[in-house]
Structures are given as structure tokens and as C-alpha cells.
Amino acid sequence: MRLLRTREGVVVLLLVTLLLLIGIFSAASPYFFDVRNGMNIGRAVSIIGIASAFTTLLMIAGGLDLSIGAVMNAAGVVAAMVLAQTNFGVPGAIAAAVLVGAAVGWINGVFIAKIGINPLIMTIAMQFILKGVTLGFSASASKVIVDPAFLAIGQGYLHLGVAAVPMPLLWMLLSMLALWFVLRFTQFGKWIYAVGGQPSACRRAGIDVDRVIIRLYTLSAVGAALAGVVLAGIQGAGIPYGAGNELSVIAAVILGGVSLSGGVGLMEGTLVAVLLVGVLKNGMTLLGISSVFQMVAEGLVLVVALTLDRLKGRL
User: Fold this and answer.
1) FRET label pair with 183: which of 54, 59, 133, 276, CA 20 to 30 Å apart?
2) Rounded distance, CA 226 to CA 168, Å?
3) Which domains, from first to last, does the chain contain?
């Protein structure tokens, strides 16, 4: 239990658990401990990882966003439609998707920070609104993407001699590295921890708490939009009715050591948690465990994450 008392201790505990899982699955399956399978795990966790990186900042500040999955789907559809119906090309498609995410996040932030609507209620409402709008604009049909430059975002590889690194994994690592730097070395990062820990004290100190919150909700949705772009590149289409990933993202962030009450968390923890869940699902697949039990396992991971968060508050 001592490890739960510090942010670094949580990361160490997660690392030990990750290594144990790797050891167990390596012994159980001859196909697990392989460079190619490692890259497959990286690709599989990349979408959740990108969104989790941005959501980590929001949840450290005490926020919560359940519209993430809807933003991903909307961003993919918007990017696909811009590619098909305009001459803006890949940069225009990505910019349009990011603008949609930024607009959604800004609206969430304003209603939560300025009007005082509960984040859970506001973002669930936005989820329904965005799903309806996306289905309406797309006529409830997937939008196929054929542009090779766009497809390379999700299907390309960075060749490093001994291994071919999937581009989605690279985007995830770059996102986490950039936001780790923000949290650790910038004034904005200090404000994020302060707002999550003592918002009233921040207001007395002259920090514009509302502006910080609005920026973080905007960033969270931008991250979801970027994840949606990468997902569309992987799938080769913008799919308006795709399954929401918001609970998987939130579970990874909480498992990584970010407290639901805010003020606590590290980007390193989110990274290890994302990899841990990916290793668990991949190992279960290689062992022939059905998707039904994998869903149960993912639910149990969320329960464990919430339990650990509760225990940390009592230590």
C-alpha cells in the first residue's frame, strides 16, 4: 500500500504488473514475445493512448469528458468528407477535424466553467448531440478514404532497421511526450495541478480558473479529434456509428494514477496503463480467450482502477 501514497509509486506498481503480465503471456504463448507482436500491441493501443494523453491533463484538473468517443467518430467523418468533396487535401482534412474537436471542447468548457453545468451531464449531452449531427451529415453511412497520404497516417510504418514502427504508435508517443513536457516544465502545467488540487485557492491567487478549464476541455476534444483522424486512417474510412472509446480512455487514465478528485497524476502512469491494458487484451487473444471475457476483463480493469483511486484517498 505504501506505493499508492506517491505518484511515482503508482507508476512503479503498474510497471511491475506490466512486466508480470509480459512474463505470464510469454510463457503461455510462443507468439507473444515477438517484435512484430509488440508492434501490433502498439498499434492496437494507439487510439486510446492519444486520447488518454490529452484526457490526462483534463482529469488532473478535476475535469471529466464523456464526449470523447463521439468526437473521434465526428472527426473521422469530417476528415473523410473534406477529402472527398473539396480540394483542401490532407492538411485541410486534418485541420477541419481538429476545428470540430476544438469547437466541441470549447462549448463543453464554457458551459461547465461559466454556467456551472455538471461535467458528466454536459459531456453526455454533447455526446448525444454530436452523434446525431454526425449521423445526419453522413447520412448514416461510412465515408471511404482512398487518399494514400491520409491512409499512411494510420497504416504507414517508420522503418528502423530491426523493427517497423506503426505510425499510430509514433503519434501516440509524440503526443504523450509533448504533453509530459507541458505538465512538467510549463507554467500551464503547474496551473493544471493547482486547479485540480485547490481551485478556490487558485482563484484567490489570481489564476483564471475558468480559462484554464475551458482550455483543457478544448485540448481534450482536440486530442480526441486527432485520435479520430488516426483511427480513420487505420480503418480507411470515417465511420459515424463506431463504438465509443470514452470509458476505455477514462479507465486508462485512472488506472495510470490520475485521481478522480483531481490534483494528482503523471503522464508516465497513463502510458504504462495504456500498455498494460493492451498487453492484457493481446495476450488473452493469443490464448484464444473469447471477446466476451475480454470485455469482462476490461470492465474489471475499470473497477480496479476506481478501487485504487479510492484507496489512495484513504492512505
Assistant:
1) 276
2) 11
3) 2-314 (1.10.3470)
